[in-house]
Design brief:
The chain has 178 residues and is mainly alpha-helical. It has two domains: 3-38, no CATH class; 43-171, no CATH class. It is built from three helices and five strands; from the N terminus they run E-E-E-H-H-E-E-H. Strands 2-1-3 form a three-stranded antiparallel beta sheet, with no helix packed on it. Strands 4-5 form a two-stranded antiparallel ribbon. A hairpin with a 2-residue loop joins strand 4 (156-157) and strand 5. The longest helix has 80 residues, at 41-120. It is rod-shaped, with a radius of gyration of 47 Å. The model has no long low-confidence stretch (mean pLDDT 75).
Length: 178
Protein backbone atom coordinates (compact mmCIF):
# COMPACT_ATOMS: atom_id res chain seq x y z
CA UNK A 1 0.00 0.00 0.00
CA UNK A 2 1.41 3.45 -0.83
CA UNK A 3 2.53 5.72 2.01
CA UNK A 4 2.20 9.47 2.38
CA UNK A 5 3.44 12.01 4.90
CA UNK A 6 4.27 15.65 5.52
CA UNK A 7 7.66 16.84 4.18
CA UNK A 8 9.11 19.81 6.13
CA UNK A 9 11.27 20.84 3.17
CA UNK A 10 8.45 20.67 0.58
CA UNK A 11 5.93 22.15 3.01
CA UNK A 12 3.15 19.80 1.87
CA UNK A 13 1.89 16.22 2.10
CA UNK A 14 3.76 14.03 -0.38
CA UNK A 15 3.99 10.44 -1.54
CA UNK A 16 6.78 8.54 0.15
CA UNK A 17 8.97 5.94 -1.56
CA UNK A 18 9.96 2.52 -0.14
CA UNK A 19 13.01 4.10 1.63
CA UNK A 20 10.88 6.74 3.40
CA UNK A 21 12.04 9.70 1.24
CA UNK A 22 9.60 12.14 -0.42
CA UNK A 23 9.11 12.40 -4.15
CA UNK A 24 11.66 15.22 -4.31
CA UNK A 25 14.29 13.02 -2.64
CA UNK A 26 14.26 14.65 0.83
CA UNK A 27 15.45 12.10 3.38
CA UNK A 28 13.13 10.44 5.90
CA UNK A 29 14.28 12.80 8.71
CA UNK A 30 12.24 15.58 7.09
CA UNK A 31 9.08 13.44 6.79
CA UNK A 32 6.52 13.25 9.61
CA UNK A 33 2.91 12.13 10.06
CA UNK A 34 3.47 9.10 7.77
CA UNK A 35 0.38 7.01 7.04
CA UNK A 36 -0.87 4.30 4.69
CA UNK A 37 -2.58 6.10 1.85
CA UNK A 38 -4.99 5.06 -0.79
CA UNK A 39 -5.55 7.28 -3.80
CA UNK A 40 -9.05 8.64 -3.52
CA UNK A 41 -11.63 8.09 -6.16
CA UNK A 42 -12.29 11.81 -6.28
CA UNK A 43 -8.75 12.47 -7.44
CA UNK A 44 -9.23 9.87 -10.18
CA UNK A 45 -12.56 11.40 -11.13
CA UNK A 46 -11.02 14.85 -11.14
CA UNK A 47 -8.28 13.61 -13.48
CA UNK A 48 -10.91 11.95 -15.65
CA UNK A 49 -12.95 15.16 -15.76
CA UNK A 50 -9.88 17.24 -16.64
CA UNK A 51 -8.95 14.74 -19.37
CA UNK A 52 -12.53 14.75 -20.71
CA UNK A 53 -12.64 18.57 -20.75
CA UNK A 54 -9.24 18.75 -22.45
CA UNK A 55 -10.28 16.14 -25.03
CA UNK A 56 -13.58 17.93 -25.67
CA UNK A 57 -11.75 21.25 -26.11
CA UNK A 58 -9.33 19.60 -28.53
CA UNK A 59 -12.16 18.01 -30.51
CA UNK A 60 -14.04 21.32 -30.65
CA UNK A 61 -10.90 23.20 -31.71
CA UNK A 62 -10.10 20.61 -34.37
CA UNK A 63 -13.77 20.37 -35.26
CA UNK A 64 -14.02 24.10 -35.94
CA UNK A 65 -10.88 23.92 -38.05
CA UNK A 66 -12.20 20.75 -39.64
CA UNK A 67 -15.54 22.40 -40.38
CA UNK A 68 -13.78 25.38 -41.96
CA UNK A 69 -11.48 23.09 -43.95
CA UNK A 70 -14.45 20.94 -44.95
CA UNK A 71 -16.37 24.05 -46.00
CA UNK A 72 -13.49 25.15 -48.21
CA UNK A 73 -13.18 21.67 -49.68
CA UNK A 74 -16.94 21.43 -50.30
CA UNK A 75 -16.94 24.87 -51.90
CA UNK A 76 -14.09 23.89 -54.22
CA UNK A 77 -15.78 20.59 -55.01
CA UNK A 78 -19.06 22.32 -55.83
CA UNK A 79 -17.25 24.80 -58.09
CA UNK A 80 -15.42 21.93 -59.80
CA UNK A 81 -18.67 19.99 -60.26
CA UNK A 82 -20.43 23.07 -61.68
CA UNK A 83 -17.56 23.56 -64.12
CA UNK A 84 -17.67 19.90 -65.16
CA UNK A 85 -21.46 20.08 -65.54
CA UNK A 86 -21.13 23.17 -67.74
CA UNK A 87 -18.53 21.40 -69.90
CA UNK A 88 -20.70 18.28 -70.06
CA UNK A 89 -23.74 20.37 -71.03
CA UNK A 90 -21.70 22.11 -73.73
CA UNK A 91 -20.48 18.77 -75.07
CA UNK A 92 -23.94 17.26 -74.86
CA UNK A 93 -25.40 20.29 -76.62
CA UNK A 94 -22.82 20.01 -79.41
CA UNK A 95 -23.43 16.26 -79.67
CA UNK A 96 -27.22 16.74 -79.72
CA UNK A 97 -26.87 19.39 -82.44
CA UNK A 98 -24.62 17.08 -84.46
CA UNK A 99 -27.11 14.20 -84.17
CA UNK A 100 -30.08 16.44 -85.04
CA UNK A 101 -28.17 17.83 -88.03
CA UNK A 102 -27.44 14.30 -89.24
CA UNK A 103 -31.13 13.40 -88.86
CA UNK A 104 -32.16 16.56 -90.73
CA UNK A 105 -29.68 15.83 -93.52
CA UNK A 106 -30.92 12.23 -93.75
CA UNK A 107 -34.47 13.59 -94.10
CA UNK A 108 -33.32 16.02 -96.79
CA UNK A 109 -31.64 13.18 -98.69
CA UNK A 110 -34.79 11.01 -98.43
CA UNK A 111 -36.93 13.89 -99.68
CA UNK A 112 -34.50 14.60 -102.52
CA UNK A 113 -34.60 10.95 -103.60
CA UNK A 114 -38.40 10.98 -103.43
CA UNK A 115 -38.45 14.17 -105.51
CA UNK A 116 -36.15 12.61 -108.12
CA UNK A 117 -38.30 9.48 -108.28
CA UNK A 118 -41.44 11.58 -108.48
CA UNK A 119 -39.95 13.70 -111.30
CA UNK A 120 -39.31 10.49 -113.29
CA UNK A 121 -42.60 8.86 -112.39
CA UNK A 122 -45.05 11.45 -111.06
CA UNK A 123 -47.86 10.42 -108.82
CA UNK A 124 -50.68 12.91 -109.11
CA UNK A 125 -50.19 16.20 -110.96
CA UNK A 126 -46.73 16.81 -112.39
CA UNK A 127 -46.50 20.22 -110.80
CA UNK A 128 -46.59 20.63 -107.04
CA UNK A 129 -49.46 22.91 -106.17
CA UNK A 130 -48.25 26.35 -105.11
CA UNK A 131 -47.83 26.72 -101.31
CA UNK A 132 -48.43 23.05 -100.57
CA UNK A 133 -44.99 21.67 -101.38
CA UNK A 134 -44.04 19.62 -98.35
CA UNK A 135 -47.58 18.70 -97.36
CA UNK A 136 -48.36 17.58 -100.88
CA UNK A 137 -45.15 15.54 -101.17
CA UNK A 138 -45.51 14.09 -97.73
CA UNK A 139 -49.06 12.94 -98.43
CA UNK A 140 -48.44 11.88 -102.02
CA UNK A 141 -45.06 10.17 -101.61
CA UNK A 142 -45.59 8.68 -98.14
CA UNK A 143 -42.95 10.73 -96.35
CA UNK A 144 -44.86 11.27 -93.13
CA UNK A 145 -42.57 11.69 -90.13
CA UNK A 146 -39.58 12.72 -92.22
CA UNK A 147 -38.27 16.19 -91.53
CA UNK A 148 -36.06 18.33 -89.36
CA UNK A 149 -35.96 17.12 -85.72
CA UNK A 150 -36.05 20.77 -84.60
CA UNK A 151 -39.51 21.13 -86.11
CA UNK A 152 -38.49 23.24 -89.09
CA UNK A 153 -40.76 22.60 -92.06
CA UNK A 154 -38.40 21.66 -94.88
CA UNK A 155 -39.24 23.50 -98.07
CA UNK A 156 -39.19 22.35 -101.66
CA UNK A 157 -38.03 24.97 -104.15
CA UNK A 158 -37.92 24.36 -107.89
CA UNK A 159 -38.35 20.63 -107.39
CA UNK A 160 -35.43 20.37 -104.93
CA UNK A 161 -35.16 20.37 -101.19
CA UNK A 162 -34.11 23.76 -99.79
CA UNK A 163 -31.43 23.93 -97.06
CA UNK A 164 -32.70 23.82 -93.49
CA UNK A 165 -32.32 27.26 -91.86
CA UNK A 166 -30.82 25.59 -88.76
CA UNK A 167 -28.79 22.67 -90.11
CA UNK A 168 -27.97 23.73 -93.67
CA UNK A 169 -28.02 21.38 -96.64
CA UNK A 170 -26.99 17.75 -96.78
CA UNK A 171 -25.66 18.39 -100.28
CA UNK A 172 -23.31 21.15 -99.04
CA UNK A 173 -22.15 20.07 -95.55
CA UNK A 174 -19.08 22.31 -95.63
CA UNK A 175 -21.39 25.34 -95.75
CA UNK A 176 -23.10 24.25 -92.53
CA UNK A 177 -19.86 24.25 -90.51
CA UNK A 178 -19.41 22.53 -87.17
Amino acid sequence: MPKAGYCDVCGTFVWIDEHGACQQGHDPAHIKDVYDAQPTASRGRRTLVVAAVATTALIVACGVGGVIASGVMVSRSVARLEEQEAQRAKLESAEIFRLEREACWASQAAIDLALQDWAKNPVGPREIPEGSGWTYLSDTLGLEGIGCPDGVVLQVEDGKIAPCPIHGSYSAPEAAGD
